[in-house]
Amino acid sequence: MKYYRWGFNNQTYNDQFYISSGGFEKPHPKHSYGPMGRSGYMIHCITGGHGIFKSNGITYHLKEGDMFYIEPHKTTYMEADEKDPWTFYWVRFVGNLVPKYMNRINLSSKNAVMNQNDLPTVFQDVIDIVEYSKNTGPRDFYYQSKMLNILNSLQLHYPKPSLHNNIPTATDIYDRALRYISNNYEEQISVHDLVKYLNIDRSYLFRIFKKYSHTNPQDFITDYRLRKASEMLKSKENNIEYVGLSCGFVSYQSFFRFFKKKYGISPSDYKKKYLN
């Protein structure tokens, strides 16, 4: 039996979330790989036959419909069955965001085996990525969309247990508040909106901001808007009124008053200072 292997290498590189390669393999009987570590994250989907996969000292006897996950730099071993060697699709993904994404999924070298019956979309999406690579033209967005769908399915099926029994700490609340402000500062958000979004007592929110930012939530929102405005004013394309309204101030007068109070000069003088 001849070893058949086909694969792709993604030429559209990015250092954040990169589906680097994938393929389909039909190895000969008893063909093995390892024991060794890999440099990226990998998911294998077995489409036929049988084989052995070893991870974290555990030996798994796998068959059609099974899947296995490989972490970077974890020793694994693969071996095709002697009488009925497996066939499988695989994808490899790396990038600065991947460890953060995988940290949200309760999947590791200690529980590395999955099944198509539990995760049918994951199984099919891996196959779809490899098969789509045979097309011409841009493919990277397709790879990423499918891989994100895979990670979403894995997170739903393997949720990470909460370390705090779902009770958020003050740090958790502060981080959520900062994200809310950064995502909505252009709108007319207020402390009331923040309290409603976080579902906490107003006085508790004030204590949290006093602890972590040494100010109150309203002043923090205003200061955040002013920092964004000061960045926009450095561009000659942005007029002053546009900048103020784009950063969530209700009027030019309001923007002027807050800006001069913080920076000691008017928005127009600030703009001239950086454009001259």
UniProtKB/TrEMBL annotation:
Pfam families: AraC_binding (PF02311), HTH_18 (PF12833)
InterPro entries referenced in this protein's UniProt entry, alphabetically: AraC-bd (IPR003313), Homeodomain-like_sf (IPR009057), HTH-like (IPR037923), HTH_AraC (IPR018060), HTH_AraC-typ_CS (IPR018062)
GO MF terms held by the record: DNA-binding transcription factor activity; sequence-specific DNA binding
Matches recorded under Gene3D superfamilies: Homeodomain-like, Regulatory protein AraC
Sorted UniProt keywords: DNA-binding, Transcription, Transcription regulation
Domain HTH araC/xylS-type per the UniProt entry, residue ranges: 175-273
Domain of life according to the entry: Bacteria
Name listed for the protein in its UniProt record: AraC family transcriptional regulator
Native species: Lactobacillus hamsteri DSM 5661 = JCM 6256
